[in-house]
Structures are given as C-alpha cells and as structure tokens.
Amino acid sequence: MRVLSFRKDDGVHLGLMVDGGVVDVTTAAASKFEGCAGVEGLPRTMEELISQGRQGLDRLRRLEELVQAQAPDRTNGAGELSGIPGLELLDESALDYAPVVACPDKIICIGWNYVSHIEETKSRTDLPKYPEVFAVSNNALSAHGKPIKLPKTASKYDYEAELVIVIGKECSMVPEEKALDYVFGYTCGNDFTERALQGRNTQWYLGKSLDGFAPVGPCVATADSIDPTNLDISMRRGDEVVQSSNTRNLVFSCARLISYLSQYLTLRPGDLIFTGTPSGVVLGQPPEERRWVVPGEKLTVSIQGIGELVNYTV
User: Fold this and answer.
1) Mean per-residue pLDDT for 103-117?
2) 135, 271 in Cβ contact below 8 A?
3) Are residues 81 and 132 in the same domain?
C-alpha cells in the first residue's frame, strides 16, 4: 500500500494511491459511508495514520477494497466515485505534494553506505566499522515536485539518490532481528548537497541543511508491502541515468541501521533515516569532468516499489 501527503485549501491531506488515482482519505474521514463497516475512524493525516498503527492500516485497506470495487471510470462530474458518495478520486499528477511527514522529530542521514560510493569519492581506504551518522534540520525537508533553490552564495551542487526509512513506533535498544518491526514504511529521498560547504569543515551540517535540500516522496510504501533489502535505486539527471544500484549493496542494512541508532537515541514515529547513496554523484567524477548541478535541471530519484521523486533546480 502507498500513501502520501498533499496540500488543499484547508491544509495537508492524507492520500491513498489506488488504480486510477489518489483517494482523499482526509475528506473520506469526514464522510459517513452507509454499510461500509471497517472504515470508521479513518486517519486524517500521515501522522494520525502512523500513530494508529495496525488499526489505521487495516482501515485504509478496507477503504482501498471499497474503491477498487468501483471501476476507475465510474466517477461523476465532480470526481466522486459514483458508488461511494463523498469519496474523491484525484489525479496524482495534479496534486500539490507535501513532505510525506510534516515535521519529523529527527532527520538522520548515513554517509558512505555503498562500497561503490566509498570507492568513487576515495573518502576512505576501508569499509566503515560503524555507520557514519549525521543529521539535517527540518528546514531542509521538501516534497515531490517542489523546486530546489540554489543560493548564489554557493556553486558545487550535487545529488544523492537514497532510500529513506520512515519510523512507525518508538524505538530504543532494539536487536537487529526485530528492528524492521518498528518501520512504518519507505520513501525516496534526495540528499542534495553543496560540496564546498560540506568540505569546508569536519561537520557536514551546513552543506546538507540548506532550505529544501532534503526532498522526500512522492509517497510512502508501507513496510508490509516492500522488501528494503532488494530494491533497485537510480537517479536521472534530465534523461541521463547517473546513479544505478540496488539496496542489497548497502554496507549497513536498514535493520542494522535502526538497531545501531536505537542503542544510543530513541527513534520516534515519523523520524526519517536517509540510508546512503550509491556511486554516480558529481563529486565522484575526476575534477576536470565534474558538472555541478545548475538551475533548470530535472532530478528524478526512482526506487522499485515506491515510485519517482522529481524535483527541479531553480
């Protein structure tokens, strides 16, 4: 199951991806469906869905079943499903996407988590013994379809396609074999970076935390619908594929990362963990061949089973 957040006039709504469009779950939550047991108490936001846990997912599955029972072309002129009055089916290409989680308590990132990326950047001579952990702040959070603004005060802009973990339950001191039980789902991320700022000091915070430099989306694939250990991941710069790998090549798996982090800090529902990027970034090219990202470019992160996160630089 894939869920998303999008903006309407009255705020951020929860959406459910189905064949033929996106169900406005927030609007559905305010409606009453006669004879539709199982959908009472629908969540109105992504945060409510995460907090409801298994019950919330079961309610959405029941709603999904109701919608899929309707032929995709059986909508009235107002975009409502003819058999379920008050339930809107929206065109996903017309949505104003919001970050999948509005305000995570933490945005944690992992560096050097693909061997190919370590090799291309010559950042170290051996595999890391422990995950390289850093964080970015919430001002960096952005969404599918939103522009990435490139400040004129910097110039060495780079992309990083990444699988992002969305934590579903409070998580502390968990063993690796139980770690994935605490995951709500997975989404696409672009750990966009200004390399000169990143390399100016020993800390990477400034080069990674510029406004809008951590877009995520377009949706979250729920944990029960996807295997994070074997997902194709790629980045397209315009029409050119510049990164291509699979999450089986992670140095530290999603389960290992969650377990490791939970030994030292409490992960909370809605926290995001960027799991690292494969080779193919601009920094990995010979200095004379580096083409830093400039305004007017289209960047597309694709991850199997989730979808495509698209952003344009301005």
Assistant:
1) 96
2) no
3) no
Q: How many domains does the chain have?
A: 2
Residue ending a domain, choose from 96, 115, 148: 96
Which residues, at least 6 apart from 114, have a Cβ–Cβ distance to it below 8 Å? Answer: 245, 249, 250, 251, 276, 277, 278, 279
Residue 9: partners with Cβ closer than 8 Å, 6 or more residues away: none
> Rounded to an integer, what is the distance from CA 158 to the centroid of its chain?
18
Structure token pair of residue 212: 């809008």
pLDDT in tens, 239-283: 999 999 999 999 999 999 999 999 999 999 999 999 999 999 999
Round to whole Å and give the CA distance between 33 and 312: 40
Query: Has residue 34 got a pLDDT over 60?
Result: no
